[in-house]
Design goal:
alpha/beta; 445 residues; 59% helix; 8 strands; eight-stranded mixed beta sheet
Length: 445
């Protein structure tokens, strides 16, 4: 989402970095470009104006201008101020003192609210080791009840619903919260109704539901691709209902990203999660400093490591470490690592978390179809060929290409890349290596 903004900011900082010392004029010219880049990314103009003013004030400090690596110091200031913009409020969910806490999801129709309810349930189940209950309170749209029920069944989550013909949204929400408490669920996630636009009828219904269930959290699900409309919607919901947090969906889209940078600064409501894909596990906890680093092309190793820990089985990691030490890494291991990487999310997202990779990636480098081709090539080999690629003569390579639906050139390319990885493994085999360090090096390759 922030590719265009990140590229423009990176270009500005690279020019500053090429200068031994910075003058007031250098700062002014650079910040004019930064302001234009923010406005082009659809950042609220007041937010952009205040951001540039704060950065300028700090950058004109005499010690910064005369110090070593002033360009890097400017980047540091921009990173800190960008983090500050994103840091409004408390980004954690608060459970409260009751055994069962109620989290009320609100939002406009089409924002991805029902799908987000399921994603949130999966996320909370992983962190609390107990399953939340999904409560369907969007009775005006029967398809929403069916959709939430299907997602709950898919994820094996407790689910509560009532017939739209004989109940109301308020009653379903109240009874669902009570049932969650009776079953001992840590959370009751109430999926409320949405509209195509904000109206009094919607707000009145949400106000009644809030009064009936007394939620610990009232979280707005908002489509980050709608730009400043998302900011306006958040402000309206906050005024009428009272929000404790936001979830930004479609953060993996190709919109300009201004809503994500503006929404907390304008409304004062903290972002708590980001939706980064369509799958039910594609929900990330929101960390302002990590997002700021990603925008500036500085990577996000903490999130990368967390994803790796979720995707890689600990016993497999220990076995992989043993093979790396002995330099016995083969194509079967390569295939297993490839599948582990695929579990971590879209390859483009994963690689951008590696510091220095953003902006160096070409579209062909992160094409998901290429991973499928690599997998097909390895699966077309015999067990012996996977263990010892040296036996792959010309006729064997032609057979593998035919069996995998690829070309001999693609087979040769994969084998060359694998040999490069083997050489990298040998460099590590003589020293002591940490498990996660090994995984990081594999990710870089």
């Amino acid at each position: 989402m922030f590719d265009a903004l990140g590229e423009k900011l990176t270009a500005v900082f690279q020019r500053l970095g090429g200068k031994g010392r910075l003058t007031d004029r250098d700062i002014d010219e650079a910040l004019k470009e930064v302001r234009v880049a923010l406005l082009e990314a659809d950042v609220n103009f007041r937010v952009a104006r205040d951001f540039v003013a704060k950065v300028k004030e700090r950058c004109l400090d005499a010690e910064l201008l005369q110090g070593l690596n002033p360009g890097q110091q400017v980047v540091k200031v921009v990173n800190e101020e960008l983090t500050a913009i994103l840091s409004a409020g408390d980004h954690r969910l608060h459970h409260g003192t009751n055994a069962t806490a109620v989290l009320m999801l609100v939002g406009l129709q089409g924002s991805g609210k029902t799908t987000t309810a399921a994603k949130l349930a999966l996320n909370l189940a992983a962190s609390s080791r107990a399953k939340p209950m999904l409560v369907a309170a969007d009775l005006r749209r029967p398809a929403a009840v069916d959709q939430l029920g299907a997602l709950a069944q898919q994820l094996d989550m407790p689910f509560y619903s009532e017939s739209p013909a004989s109940s109301t949204a308020v009653r379903a929400a109240r009874n669902g919260a009570a049932e969650a408490a009776r079953q001992g669920a840590p959370w009751a996630i109430v999926d409320t109704g949405g509209r195509l636009q904000i109206d009094d009828e919607l707000m009145d219904e949400l106000t009644e539901i809030k009064r009936a269930v007394n939620p610990e959290e009232v979280v707005l699900v908002v489509d980050a691709m709608t730009g400043q409309e998302a900011v306006n919607a958040a402000a309206a919901f906050n005024e009428r209902v009272g929000l404790t947090g936001l979830i930004l969906t479609k953060m993996d889209g190709d919109a300009r990203g201004g809503a994500a940078l503006s929404i907390s600064a304008v409304t004062g409501v903290p972002v708590k999660f980001m939706g980064v894909g369509e799958k039910t596990d594609a929900l990330e906890t929101f960390y302002p400093d990590r997002l700021a680093s990603r925008i500036l092309g500085m990577g996000d190793m903490l999130t990368l490591i967390e994803r790796a820990q979720e995707a890689v089985d600990i016993q497999q990691a220990e076995e992989m470490e043993r093979k790396l030490r002995k330099a016995t890494f083969d194509l079967q291991d390569f295939l297993e690592q490839l599948r582990a990487v695929q579990k971590m999310g879209p390859l483009g997202q994963v690689l951008e978390m590696v510091p220095g990779m953003k902006g160096r990636l070409k579209p062909d480098d992160v094409e998901e179809g290429r991973l499928k081709s690599v997998e097909a090539i390895v699966l077309s080999m015999t067990p012996r060929e996977r263990r010892d690629p040296n036996v792959l003569n010309a006729s064997r390579r032609r057979r593998i290409a035919l069996g995998s639906g690829t070309t001999v050139q693609e087979v040769n390319q994969l084998l060359n890349q694998f040999r490069q990885m083997q050489r990298m493994m040998k460099q590590f085999s003589g020293g002591k290596m940490r498990r996660m360090g090994a995984i990081q090096q594999l990710m870089r390759q």
